[in-house]
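Quick review question:
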């Protein structure tokens, strides 16, 4: 599956810096982060997903 992410300039910079520190491409780091998130045990995944959805509720409303 391919996913397109929309990041702010600051988020893009942070991703690139973190990837550089880990000697990874930004795409590989983002992919690893998603794999880690979905690999969490169910209660932890649900809690993390709820936090992400709550933090980004306004953005999701604008995208609809």
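Suggested answer, residue by residue:
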């Amino acid at each position: 599956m391919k996913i397109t992410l929309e990041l702010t300039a600051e988020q893009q910079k942070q991703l690139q810096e973190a990837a550089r520190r880990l000697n990874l491409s930004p795409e590989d780091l983002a992919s690893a982060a998603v794999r880690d998130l979905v690999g969490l045990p169910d209660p932890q995944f649900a809690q993390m997903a709820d936090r992400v959805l709550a933090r980004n509720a306004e953005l999701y409303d604008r995208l609809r």
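Why it works: The helical segments are 9-21, 26-38, 42-55, 57-63. The chain has one domain: 9-63.
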